[in-house]
Amino acid sequence: MTRTFLFLISYGLIVITISNMIFYFNYRALGYEWNEIFRYIVQTADFALFIIAACILILTVYARVPSRLPFSRQ
Description:
Largest sheet: none
Helix content: 55-70%
Order of helices and strands: HHH
Mean pLDDT: 90
Structural class: mainly alpha
Strand content: under 5%
């Protein structure tokens, strides 16, 4: 249950932060260069939150867990 909760929270954070970072591409229409836009994106809190959420998502998907709980009887 915890893994499912962490997966859903991290996936939601990734979707939200990516969509916010896509809005920053509108600065291109204002005359900014690509390197300025990418430098700005890397410095925002959205990018840091994206990195943290992506790490949590990778850990919840690829972390090894026991196939059954220790207190279950099979």
